[in-house]
Each structure stands twice: as C-alpha cells, then as structure tokens.
C-alpha cells in the first residue's frame, strides 16, 4: 500500500515565514500536508497558521540545523539562508529541495551569471566588479545596471547607472555590472521539476515594474507570438535541467527588440510572477512547489482564464499599523481576488498583498483593472 505524505506522517519544513510560505500553507491545507515554519520574525505572516512555528535566524547554521534535523523534507521561500547547515542536513538524509548547491549558486548573482556563461544560456553581457577596482571601471561601463552580488531582494540591490553623478551613489560592495539592454518586454516563466525529472512550465507572463523595481503589473498570458512563447518555455526548461534542480524556478527574461531572449535572473522558489496561478491555472505555483519537493506527480499548468496581478504595497509617507482604504468597495467589483498577507504594519513599498484580476480575455481584464485603478490603498493609522 502506498503511504501518503500527509498529516504528521511527514514533517515538511520551510525556511522563511513570509507571504510565500503563507500561500504554500493555504495549498497544503487542501492536501492535508503539515507545514513547519522557521522565521526570525515572531509576527511573520506564517506564525499563526503553521502547524508549528520556530523563531530563529535563517543565516545561523546552528538554528537552521536544529530546525531542519527534525524534518523529513526541508524547503525554502527565500534564498538567503545558511547553506552550510543545508549541506549538513542533506548529508544526514534530510530531503533538501532545492538542493543546497543550487541555492548556493543562485543566492550570488555573480555565480548566477557565470553559470549562464558556462552553460551557453543567453544573458546580458556583464563583468564582475569589486570596490577595490575603483570607480573608473564603472565610468567605462556607462550606461549600465549595477546589481549587488548578495543580499538584494524585492527590488533592492539593483540600480541603473546612466551618468557619472549617479556613480557617486553606487553600491560599494561586490557587484555584477551588466550592459543596459534595450528590451521590448520583460517576461517570466515558472518551471517545475520533481525528483523523477518530470518537468512542466506555466504559460509565459509579461511584467511591468515600478520605480522601486517591484512588479507593478503582471499579465497572463503575455502578449507575444507563439514562437516566442515556445522559445521562452524551452529556455526555462534548459535552465532547470542544467541546474539539475528539484523544485520550482522562476526564470525572468528580457525579450529584446530584435526578438532574442536573454535570461535576467532566476529564483528557486514560488515567485511574484506566479501569484496569478492561484486563480488562473489548474494547479497553482504553490501547490506545484509542494508537489515537486514531495516528489508527487506535477499538476496541470493549463490556464483557466486570463488574468493580471497587481502588487498591493504600502503607500508613500505612511508607516505603522496597516489600514486598508476602500476594502469593501474593491470587493464589490466582479473578477477581483484580494490576497492580503497578514502583515500588521505597513511602510512605503512594503508588499502587503496582491490583487488578481480575472476575465474571459485580456480585454475584459484590462477593463476591470481600469475600474479599480487607484481604488485600494494601504495607509497607516498613525
């Protein structure tokens, strides 16, 4: 008889208790999978809904090891975790997915870029830069994109350098310096792979970013040709196969004006560019993540409807206890799906939730977006 990986029979741990973990738990409830969370914030979005919650430092080897050794399977919702602890746990028989070597490679944007170069994966031309090289090296690369090799997250750690004046405010830490790409669209593909090597991809989505480098709008499906759709999905498969990775991977790409695809960055976890899959696809990226790390059959990625995703972020000039403006008015609109992340305090540009807008086609989706544009805001009580 097949033993089901449900309830207390299998301990699945997640490093990180933010909104991604929260949405994984929501899917895990449907599959009767127990989820155990570790996060440094005692008030993290997962703290009140996980089967157990452990407060600990994700970069502390002892904390991560102590948490992980009580698990059968360990996964992540953030890359910035203790890799030495994960290697030790893997060696002792804990199923760690994505694998520690994959997380170690991806958490450093420099080794990411070298992986692309070494494996014939198209990407923007780049150089690795150290502060010891001096600012003259940056002057020679203008205009360019500067990315911190480690520590960047949610749009932070990336900046555009166009002038010598902007170099004065550049990052003074190891960076990737990329050639500025004159792209037509920014695309993303979510690809999943389980331990058996089964792979599936979600339809390509199109992303628009705001001034804080956060996704402001996501449109699914992307407005691209069938050839570009096929090429993007094939490229995402190539990346996850060459990584030999188990889990779910977001592959962000540039579509250049000449029609070429260049891999920008990858994220080895559920991703902002896949939130719409909760409503728009047969199997959401969050359930798919569970399926991959538990080595279950992969779910169908077929689209049920067209959709768009809008990030809900804290308004400028507001910090403190969160207040949701026009909450009821938003929910009165058809085709609107509100997801709030349970964060008690807001601050400018903090991700507080997202809205998925669904429709029978993209025309109806755009019409519904127009009807709610600027309606719902996150401000503070102070």
Search tags:
382 residues, alpha+beta, Rossmann fold, Dna Ligase, domain 1, D-amino Acid Aminotransferase, Chain A, domain 1, 3 domains, nine-stranded antiparallel sheet, five-stranded parallel sheet, 12 helices, 21 strands, globular
Estimated helix fraction:
25-40%
Overall SS class: alpha+beta
Radius of gyration (Å): 21 Å
* Second CATH tier, the architecture of the largest domain: 2-Layer Sandwich
The total count of strands amounts to 21
Number of domains: 3
- Cα(first) to Cα(last) distance is 58 Å
Assembly state here? single chain
- Based on CA inertia axes, which overall geometry fits? globular
CATH class of the largest domain: Alpha Beta
Q: Could you please say which CATH topology of the largest domain applies here? A: D-amino Acid Aminotransferase, Chain A, domain 1
Uncertain residue ranges: none
Query: How many strands, which pairing sense, and closed or not: the largest β-sheet?
Result: 9 strands, antiparallel
Q: What is the mean predicted local confidence, pLDDT? A: 93
Strand content: 25-35%
Number of H- or I-type helical stretches: 12
CATH superfamily of the largest domain: ATP-grasp fold, B domain
Task: Describe this protein's structure.
This protein has 382 residues and is α+β, with helices and mostly antiparallel strands. It is built from 12 helices and 21 strands. The termini are far apart. The model has no long low-confidence stretch (mean pLDDT 93). Strands 10, 11, 12, 13, 14, 15, 16, 18 and 20 form a 9-stranded antiparallel β-sheet that branches. The chain folds into 3 domains: 7-96, Rossmann fold; 125-179, 2-Layer Sandwich (Dna Ligase, domain 1), CATH 3.30.1490; 183-380, ATP-grasp fold, B domain (D-amino Acid Aminotransferase, Chain A, domain 1). The protein is globular, with a radius of gyration of 21 Å. Helices cover 27% and strands 31% of the residues.
């Amino acid at each position: 008889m097949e033993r089901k990986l449900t309830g207390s029979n299998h301990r699945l741990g997640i490093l990180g208790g933010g909104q991604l973990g929260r949405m994984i738990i929501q899917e895990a409830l449907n599959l009767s999978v127990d989820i155990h969370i570790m996060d440094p914030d005692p008030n993290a979005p997962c703290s009140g809904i996980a089967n157990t919650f452990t407060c600990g430092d994700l970069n502390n080897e002892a904390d991560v090891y102590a948490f992980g050794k009580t698990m059968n399977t360990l996964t992540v919702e953030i890359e910035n975790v203790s890799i030495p602890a994960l290697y030790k746990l893997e060696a002792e028989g804990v199923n760690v997915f994505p694998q520690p070597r994959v997380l170690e490679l991806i958490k450093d944007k420099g080794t990411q870029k070298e992986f692309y170069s070494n494996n014939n994966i198209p990407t923007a031309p780049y150089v690795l830069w150290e502060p010891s090289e001096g600012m003259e090296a940056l002057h020679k690369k203008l205009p360019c994109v500067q990315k911190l090799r480690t520590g960047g997250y949610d749009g932070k750690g990336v900046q555009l350098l166009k002038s010598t004046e902007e170099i004065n405010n550049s990052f003074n830490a190891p960076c990737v310096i990329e050639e500025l790409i004159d792209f037509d669209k920014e695309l993303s593909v979510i690809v999943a792979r389980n331990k058996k090597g089964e792979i599936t991809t979600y339809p390509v989505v199109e992303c628009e970013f705001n001034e804080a480098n956060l996704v402001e709008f996501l449109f699914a499906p992307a407005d691209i040709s069938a050839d570009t759709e096929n090429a993007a999905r094939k490229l995402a498969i190539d990346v996850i196969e060459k990584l030999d990775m188990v889990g779910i991977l977001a592959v962000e790409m540039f579509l250049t004006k000449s029609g070429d695809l260049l891999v920008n960055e990858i994220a080895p976890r559920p991703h902002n560019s896949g939130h719409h899959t909760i409503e728009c696809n047969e199997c959401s990226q969050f359930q798919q993540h569970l399926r991959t790390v538990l080595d279950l059959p992969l779910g169908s990625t077929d689209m049920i409807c067209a959709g768009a995703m809008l990030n809900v972020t804290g308004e400028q000039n507001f910090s403190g206890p969160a207040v949701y403006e026009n909450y009821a008015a938003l929910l009165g609109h058809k085709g609107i799906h509100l997801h709030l992340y349970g964060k008690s305090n807001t601050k400018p540009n903090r991700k507080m939730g997202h809205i998925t807008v669904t429709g029978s086609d993209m025309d109806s989706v755009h019409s519904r977006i127009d009807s709610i544009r600027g309606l719902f805001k996150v401000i503070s009580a102070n």
